[in-house]
Here is the input.
Amino acid sequence: MALLQISEPGGKPAAPKHRLAVGIDLGTTNSLVAASCGQKVEILPDDEGNYLMPSIVSYGTNSAPVVGHAALPAAVEDPANTIISVKRLLGRSLGEVSDDEQFGQYQFASTGVDSAPVLQTAAGDKNPVQVSADILSALAQRAERALKGKLEGVVITVPAYFNDAQRQQTKDAAQLAGLQVLRLLNEPTAAAVAYGLDSKDEGNVIVFDLGGGTFDVSLLSLQKGIFEVLATGGNTSLGGDDFDRALMALVRSKLGATEELNHKQTAQLKRLVIQAKHELSNSSSSELIFNDQTVRLTVEDFSAAVQDLVRQTITACRRVLRDAELDKDQIDNIVMVGGATRMPVIRQAVAEFFGKEPLTSIDPDKVVAIGAGIQADVLIGNKSADSFLLLDVNPLSLGIETMGELVEKIIPRNTTIPVARAQEFTTFKDGQTVMALHVVQGERELVKDCRSLARFELRGIPPMVAGAAKIRVTFQVDADGLLSVLAEELSTGTRAEIQVKPSYGLGSGEIEEMLQASQAHAQEDMQVRALREAQIEAQQLIDAIRAAETQDGDLLEEEERAQLDAAVAKLERAIADANKNDISEQTEALNKLSGEFAARRMDLHIAKALSGENIDSVESTND
Ligand code: AMP
Here is the structure.
């Protein structure tokens, strides 16, 4: 919120100072920086007039890192010391990336598979946070030169699917670059901000973001200046590159060449293919000449070759609509983001599916940075914050492990953030003084199918009978999507807290896989959950009966005890056989059979209490 200025009594009010803040689109391939210049937010170009800055850093011996366009030649001549696509390394572990072909040219230090990847360069070891910091520094320098002053804050955009680790490392990189992060902003939300303020949209908006290597689709609700992300989805390994590959295959079949191309020839043909792809966005045909052969390509050829890829983007749109429980005719606007949305085949498919033309008036490469620039201007206090409020969602459910290795979801996926949700839990064993909390992320019912985020313990719970202690667990996700978990024992106020800041995160494709797996296994998961719950309930009953027999066994006739033990043995067999119906039947039978014993114990303890003995140990076997 903007701070109010108070002027000295009798003095002249000071002219409001314009504070310098920028929006940064920190991209995998290219990055941009935008700032408010007068009435409009604009992309700040470099001295040569380039607005895109390649996200490339080259490290040489005894020299400062070379970033952006200046590093392009080194990407070819010295690939081992020139880091490209570092965004794909953020928040990931060495084990996840060391065998990945796209990082094949790098030497990673052998730090252990679970630790963050460390790149060995001529300028020494560099981790992804340091490389990202060098890119951010270069963007900040560009901005400070253009704006002629020191930056006071930045808004950095991140993909909607970035997990906690990836977001945290983006923040760490900014801090290392000496930048004050006003906020991390989801890329689709930034795009909606750019259009929302420019064209005063109201209603439901789809943000369709097809870049070079990734596809994100988000559904936002815009009402009276308030943006809310209702759902997000997409495919983290689908992008313009796949269209290049499809067109390459078509060109090769047209060339009729059967022999393998060498590395240089492949690179040359690829360049021609990408050029043709771009031409086909503006004209109905294109020609390329390779090895003295001319290949003619038409828009129809291209459309047929990429049909399957186009269909995949529409399937993702359908899924997002389903998540938000909206119909496609309830969508009022579609915002196009990313260079690959320039392809008419994409624009047509989107228009056809939603029954309306997508918005393309803002350059799809600049729209995210412009939105971030607008946000930065508001957050630094140059503009009234009342005009809009941004809400995002968390992409995967967050929960806690409960007995039976089951997951209790506390914040479901697609919940609007920032958010705080609390739930009460209790102890499982009599006299339990420590509770182990395991925080997990994912959509499945069993812990083993979800992602472990953190473990911590709440100590100092006063000893009580099982189920008597009340432990409130609060999950809080801040505006940047970072999670903190607080556990509190309510009678004593004993607390334990953890900030989830895992050092490495999910591979980007895994989030998509997790969502798909949860849908594919929904029914099976429910059955496993029901079985586990029945097993836990049955085991608790058995434990309670055993404890009661030890304490008050003399209340039972010998035959009654034998019957009870036989029923316990039967229930134990049912638990071991993992037959849900059998367990439920035997649990009910044992409950009935032990009812009389429970009643006798209750009478005895009440009588003792009335005669002055302690009632604390009273407990029913039927609880
Ligand atoms: P981005 O990651 O948003 O910069 O998107 C880059 C992708 O957009 C690459 O696959 C480019 O080939 C593609 N692209 C850029 N301009 C065009 C165009 N005019 N027609 C088709 N694809 C384009």
User: Anything to note?
Assistant: Residues 608 and 614 are 8 Å apart (CA to CA). The chain has 15 helices and 27 strands. Confidence is low (pLDDT under 50) at residues 1-15, 501-508, 615-623. The domain at 396-520 is CATH 2.60.34.10 (Substrate Binding Domain Of DNAk; Chain A, domain 1).
